[in-house]
Specification:
With about 80 residues, the chain is mainly alpha-helical. The chain has one domain. Helix 1 packs across helix 2.
Length: about 80
């Protein structure tokens, strides 16, 4: 089990690299699911389990949806 701070640091960096590149993300459930799968795969490659992600973030889809909304609001 990884510490929440390690998981949060990893996720923050991943979001900065990946959501910023999604300028035309339509915020559909399919796109959020794709991003969640990408995040989960990248996390596993770093030794971060799905349980670690859930403990640090809560629901991954909800977390990514909120991050996308914040990025969209900052762009406006």
């Amino acid at each position: 089990m990884r510490h929440n701070s390690d998981v949060e640091t990893f996720v923050k960096a991943w979001v900065e690299r990946n959501l910023r590149d999604e300028g035309s993300l339509s915020n559909t459930p399919a796109e959020i699911d794709r991003l969640a799968a990408d995040l989960t795969g990248a996390a596993r490659a770093e030794g971060i389990s799905g349980g670690d992600l859930n403990r640090a973030l809560g629901d991954i889809d909800d977390y990514l949806t909120e991050q996308y909304r914040q990025i969209g609001a900052a762009r406006s």
